[in-house]
Amino acid sequence: MNTPCPCGSNAPYAECCQPLHHGEAASTPEALMRSRYAAFIENLPDYLRATWHPSTRPGSLSLEDSPDWTALQILDSTENQAQGTVHFRAVYRLAQGFRFLEERSDFLKEDDRWYYLQGETSEGQFKPGRNEPCPCGSGKKYKACCL
Fold first, then answer.
1. 87 and 61 in contact (C-beta within 8 Å)?
2. Under DSSP, is residue 114 helix (H, G, I), strand (E, B) or coil?
3. What pLDDT, in 10s, does the model give residues 82-102?
4. What H or E segment, with its residue span, contains residue 19?
5. Following CA atoms 10, 19, 60, 93 in sequence, which dihedral angle do they give, to the nearest 10 degrees?
6. Which terminus in the chain has less CB density within 10 A, N or C?
7. Which residues have CB under 8 Å from 95's CB, separation 6+?
8. How far apart are CA 10 and CA 81, in angstroms?
């Protein structure tokens, strides 16, 4: 099946994040970040914990109160041997409208695997322009969809 990957890469899920969710190592910090975002949508808390560096990994993780994630935008991504950073914005929907979580995430590579280490986050209200794509993922303009 050619279901689009929830990470927004425009690749099929089966060729993008699903192999990582089944144990394949991410090739870059950005690939790991995208797969972690997709794991929130696919409700894969075990994957999120497994890709979290042991030094900062929480003892448990529940996605029961996770918001309705709608879009991921990678703003910047860097890697230098065993360290990497990804600056991203993830949009989610609440009853009051769209909001975003923006994070600058740090990653470490150990034993040929990338791990999420930590991140600095901020949140805010997301206000797309009337003629911009709707953040709900419909492919329509915001004014013709969720405005």
1. no
2. strand
3. 999 999 999 999 888 899 999
4. helix 18-21
5. 10
6. N
7. none
8. 27
d(CA 11, CA 4): 6
Residues sharing a CB contact under 8 Å with residue 105, sequence separation 6 or more, in sequence order: 29, 33, 85, 86, 87, 88, 116, 117, 118, 119
pLDDT band at 145; cut points 50, 70, 90: confident
**Tens digit of pLDDT for each residue in 35-86?**
999 999 999 999 999 999 999 999 999 999 899 999 999 999 999 999 999 9
What's the residue count for the chain?
A: 147
User: 22 or 135: whose pLDDT is higher?
Assistant: 22
Torsion sign, CA atoms 49, 105, 19, 110? negative
